[in-house]
Design goal:
116 residues, mainly beta, 4-stranded antiparallel sheet, 53% strand, globular
């Protein structure tokens, strides 16, 4: 079955960096687009970034543009999110998502906390 497992979250100071990973299994990773979402306490989940199956096309929310980079390694079935210049408002649970044959799949999420 489709499984997505995020890792790489943690506590970081403002201005710091983190790299999130999302390990995928149970489907042909290389033919599906992938996305990163986040949900902060008391807020709705929001799209952070998405990437096409080949990695040739990407999209970023305005709030992270220029600071975050989404990428993928289809040989390793892994999605990444490089987060630089982190701000306290980036604090949230980050989850990866894919849509396989009309069904949405989410990982369990990884907590990112930006605080001094």
């Amino acid at each position: 079955q489709v499984q997505l497992a995020e890792s790489g979250g943690g506590l970081v100071q403002p201005g710091g960096s983190l790299r999130l990973s999302c390990a995928a299994s149970g489907f042909t990773f290389s033919i599906y687009n992938m996305s990163w979402y986040r949900q902060a306490p008391g807020k709705e989940r929001e799209l952070v970034a998405k990437i096409s199956n080949t990695g040739g096309a990407t999209y970023y929310a305005d709030s992270v543009k220029g600071r975050f980079t989404i990428s993928r390694d289809n040989a390793k079935n892994t999605l990444y999110l490089q987060m630089n210049s982190l701000k306290p408002e980036d604090t949230a649970v980050y989850s990866c998502r894919t849509n396989v044959l009309g069904n949405l799949y989410w990982g369990q999420g990884t907590q990112v906390t930006v605080s001094s």
